[in-house]
Amino acid sequence: MQLRKVTAASAAVLALALTATACGSDDKDDAAGSGGKITIGIKIDQPGLGLKTPDGKFTGFDVDVATYVAKELGYDAKDINFVETKSADRETAIERGDVKFIAATYSINDERLQKVDFAGPYLLAHQDVLIRADDKTIKSPEDLNSKNLCSVTGSTSAKNVKEKLAPKAQLQNYGGYSECLTGLENEAVDALTTDDSILAGYAAQDAHKGKFKLAGFKMTNENYGIGLKKGDADLKKKINAALTKMVSDGSWDKAVETNFGPANYKNEPAPKIGDVVK
Questions:
Q1: Other beta carbons within 10 Å of 57
Q2: Is residue 176 within 8 Å of 152, Cβ to Cβ?
Q3: Taking the model in full, what pTM does it have?
Q4: Secondary-structure breakdown of the chain: helix, strand, coil percentages, each rounded to the nearest 5
Q5: Is the distance from CB of 224 to CB of 277 less than 8 angstroms?
Q6: 20 to 30 Å CA-CA from 160: which of 60, 128, 129, 151?
Q7: Which bin fits 264, alpha (ψ -120 to 50), beta or left (φ > 0)?
Q8: Is the Cβ–Cβ distance between 102 and 195 less than 8 Å?
Q9: What is the pairing mode between strands 191-195 and 127-132?
């Protein structure tokens, strides 16, 4: 009898150990999207696209797209763990499995397609310039010649303008877009350049409403896609289906208006899945 008791107790301990191990595995899997949770990579410093507010909430068009997609994959908003993925870290985060997918102004290009797959695109943006609302002197990229053009340190957008469109533009490097906007408002610079969607997000902020406008130059094509692990055809198919539904039920248009409307952003129509504009 004593032997049976010890054996039964051991079995109980073993069962508890197995249960604890299983729970630990679920917690680990949550980072990739198992166990009822999903981790999604976004930007947290881009108003209108991906922004973490002082109260800890996440707002922006990319956030709205990611939330809609996650819901179609079976996750409620409370089950989403948004994490910051900086531009230089996006491929690594996907490859390591730190995130299930990334929606963070992530332009589809051949170099990135060597490392990750993309669903979408879900937005076609263009490089543009932001100028003061009352500026009537900048009507074409060539008008940027001899103008002070704001460049965020490490950005290639201003360099692209200077090398290809306005070689006499005077580049001024700032630490971030917010500093460029202050310089633009104070007339220390005449224009700020990056993707029009990013510019629209900044211009739509309450503190900036009515002060700036997009020039509408459309100097490049930037096809924003949702990045995911290379070879995950099933997830790519599901995300593409979710994006298609978001457009068809009107949620895509609503998200554009909510996040970019105050800047009078003349966005392109929702792109067709797989239609990457060069």
A1: 10
A2: yes
A3: 0.81
A4: 45, 20, 35
A5: no
A6: 60
A7: left
A8: no
A9: antiparallel
Q: How far apart (Å, rounded) are the C-alpha atoms in residues 260 and 263?
A: 6
How far is residue 118's CA from residue 225's CA, in Å, rounded to a whole number? 6
Q: Which residue has the tokens 């202050």?
A: 182
- In tens digits, the chain (278 residues) has pLDDT values of 444 444 444 444 434 443 434 443 333 344 455 568 999 999 999 999 999 999 999 999 999 999 999 999 999 999 999 999 988 899 999 999 999 999 999 999 999 999 999 999 999 999 999 999 999 999 999 999 999 999 887 677 888 898 899 999 999 988 888 899 999 999 999 999 999 999 999 988 888 888 999 999 999 999 999 999 999 999 999 999 999 999 999 999 999 999 987 777 888 999 999 999 99
The full DSSP string for 122-162 is EEEE-EEEEEETT--S--SGGGGTTSEEEEETT-SHHHHHH
Strands of the chain (E only): list them: 38-42, 45-46, 50-52, 58-59, 80-84, 101-102, 116-125, 127-132, 148-152, 170-174, 191-195, 212-214, 222-229
Q: How far is CA 94 from CA 37, 118, 165, 204, 222, in A?
A: 16, 11, 35, 31, 20
Cα distance between residue 168 and residue 158, in whole Å: 12
Q: Is 184 helix (H, G, I), strand (E, B) or coil?
A: helix
Cβ-contact 170, 151 below 8 angstroms: no
Determine the Cα–Cα distance for residues 156 and 151; give it in Å rounded to an integer: 8
Instruction: State the DSSP code for 244.
Output: H
Q: How far is CA 93 from CA 45, 89, 214, in A?
A: 18, 6, 33
Q: Are 49 and 197 in contact (CB under 8 A)?
A: yes
